[in-house]
Amino acid sequence: MTDDQQGYFFTLITMLIWGSFSLIARLNAYWQIQVWDVLAMRFGIAAMILLPILWLKKDYRFLFDYRMVLLALSGSIGYCVFVYSGFFYAPVVHGVVFLNGTFPLFAALIAYLMLGQKVDRQTGIGLSIIVITLIAMTVMMSMTDGGFGVGDAMFVGSAVCWGLFSVLLRRWSFTPWQVMSGVGIWSAVLYLPVYAMFVTPQFAHAEPLHLAVQGLFHGIAVVIVATLTYAKAVEKIGLFKAGSIANLAPFIASILAVPLLGESLNPIMVCGLIGMALGALQPWRWVVR
């Protein structure tokens, strides 16, 4: 395959995993698997796979860089605690709106505060659409019985963590392999002892098949496969194309959640999806290019 064909192929794999993430994470609520157990499986399985590879490669000095610990705390542990909790309390469409939709806003804000980086005109238009959509949704949700719930707040928290993680990645020059390995291993080192001391596992209350699906998907597909395929996609076709196409996945997942999980889409969430998709994906950039 040509470089472009390889890039779109890797982007497709990334899309499938990122889109499935919202749906499979939401299944924890239906399968009654507690968030802390899912995180233990995710971090534990990823570390068990990555540690032998690092040992064989004889390339593990970067693990002792304190910046890896900060990346693990923000982009892995912090993000995962918020996002999995959010999907436990709120439907998939809420996650797409309040996580995938607000992430560009927080990333731009944190980049400005930490790096002094100003947004360009096109990004400014996208962020303005996101802010207007958030204000409109807040007003409409306050007029209904549902309102802004705990799950929605969790998604906003995860967007802040992912925005901080993205800015730190931009500031520090690590390779995709180092980021994946360092973040995966440090997440296990930091989280698993706390889990063992303070959490009572509830594996006995879940089906073995359900546990296997969650553990393998989150520990291997999300942490390892999607990281590498996205990095390769960016290398082959560039950040804008790869990012724009791959970011469509969560929005598609919110629609698939209706027939697959029996969730509903009310007019407020539909308006939110449209506004956040326009602001986050900025489709007019394709026209300009």
UniProtKB/TrEMBL annotation:
Does the record bear Membrane in its keywords?
A: yes
Q: Where are the transmembrane segments?
A: 7-27, 39-56, 68-90, 96-115, 124-143, 149-169, 181-199, 211-231, 238-261, 267-288
Annotated InterPro entries: AA-Vitamin_Transporters, EamA_dom, EmrE-like
What Pfam families does its record include?
Answer: EamA
Cited SUPFAM superfamilies: Multidrug resistance efflux transporter EmrE (SSF103481)
- Residue span(s) of domain EamA: 7-137, 151-281
Compartment(s) where it occurs, according to its Swiss-Prot or TrEMBL record: Membrane
Task: Tell me, in one coarse class, where this protein mainly resides.
Answer: membrane
Record's keyword terms, sorted? Membrane, Transmembrane, Transmembrane helix
Q: What are the GO cellular component annotations?
A: membrane
Give membrane topology per the record. Answer: Multi-pass membrane protein
Record family assignment: Belongs to the EamA transporter family.
Protein name, entry field: EamA family transporter
Q: Which organism is it from?
A: Moraxella pluranimalium
Q: What is the lineage of its organism?
A: Bacteria, Pseudomonadati, Pseudomonadota, Gammaproteobacteria, Moraxellales
